[in-house]
Amino acid sequence: MARIKYYYDTETCKYERVKVSTWDVVLNFMGFMFVSVLIAFGLVLAYFFIFDSPKEQILKQENRALRDSLNNWQREISLQRDYVAYLQQRDERIYRQIMEADPLPSSVREMGMGGADRYKKYRELDLPEVLTDTRKKIDKLNKEMYAQSLSFDEIEELAENKNKMLASIPAIQPIRNKELTRLASGYGLRMHPIYKVRKMHWGIDFSAPRGTPIYSTGDGKISRVVRSNKRTGYGNYVEIDHGYGFKTRYAHMQTISVRVGQKVSRGETIGKVGNTGGSTAPHCHYEIMKDGKKVDPILYMIMDVTDEEYQKLLDLASIENQSLG
User: Can you tell me where the transmembrane regions are (predicted)?
Assistant: First the structure.
């Protein structure tokens, strides 16, 4: 039931019934609709500002997941860079010093990773700057790891060569001499057993009974085998090329058990002690050549002896006695 409205008429001093025209009804309805539309629009705006749509919720979840992943990647990159820095430090301060290698050139460690437009595609995609920075960090880390791998390859090769060199250097006595009593004559001016004059003796004589085994003093390859019936010179002898500029000679042998081109290891038997050539008693005449020059073998007999034993060998080798041949 519609509500009836009245108003007070001051001229008649009576309450008169309010008469509503069609135009008033239209205006009232339009005003009501306008206010309703405004309220509805405001509610819709409030809803969109306060509440996320399902699509927005999905996108926000994906963004949170990507942000967490990015943070994890950055932490992992930081840890990996710390580890690479640790490897670089050990490489420079330990490995390369042990191997007596020069430091890795900075030009290798700081090698380029492409031109100025390397990251242009990221800018064209309008990606956030943090993604570009992350890509740069990853590229720098890859570069450092690659450079370090090159260094380790070089160190590995140096270590292999070092081991080969250490095994090749003639560093033991050519015959068994535990009691240190077989060193008969050293390197230097000695009385020649036949000519009875002071003459340069280019090696060390080890006296031993005939048939005593003679050993290679380092890894190498047999470069020369000579069998001679003459009563002068080295008689039967063997030369070994050890590489790295080292050669050794074993003279006055009774028998030879190796052939030219054969590879031998340190401590391997190459023949037996004899009295051939210009020799006055059974012994092994032992020489070392370094870069084509004969050197004092006693300087290299450092393996399988203590400091005290080595000093005794030095004392015996320094005695200016008569050589055996």
Answer: 25-50
C-alpha to C-alpha distance for 222 and 239, rounded to whole angstroms? 6
Question: pLDDT (tens digit, 9 = 90+) per residue, 237-275?
Answer: 999 999 999 999 999 999 999 999 999 999 999 999 999
Let me know whether 24 and 133 are in one domain.
Answer: no
Phi/psi for 40 (5° steps) reads -65, -45
Domain that holds residue 31: 6-50
For residue range 10-53, what is the model confidence (pLDDT) as tens digits?
Answer: 777 777 776 767 787 788 778 888 888 888 888 777 777 776 67
Ordered DSSP codes for 4-64: P-EEEETTTTEEEEPPPPHHHHHHHHHHHHHHHHHHHHHHHHHHHHHS--HHHHHHHHHHH
**R_g (Cα) of the chain, nearest Å:** 49
Exposed (0-12), middle (13-18) or buried (19+): which is 174, by Cβ within 10 Å? buried
What is d(CA 325, CA 323) in angstroms, rounded to the nearest whole number? 6
Give all strands (DSSP E) within the chain, no chain letters. 6-9, 14-17, 183-185, 188-191, 198-201, 204-207, 213-215, 220-226, 237-243, 246-251, 253-256, 263-264, 269-273, 283-290, 293-295
| Residue 159, domain member (yes or no) | yes
218 and 95 fall within a common domain:
no
What pTM does this model have? Answer: 0.61
Instruction: Return phi, psi of residue 291, to 5°.
Output: 55, 40
On the CB side of 171, how many CA atoms lie within 13 Å of its CA?
A: 12
Distance from the first to the final alpha carbon of the chain: 149
Query: How far apart are alpha carbons 137 and 84 in whole angstroms?
Result: 13
- Is 213 found in the same domain as 155? no
Whole-number Cα distances in Å, 123 to 70, 116, 127, 278: 18, 12, 6, 87
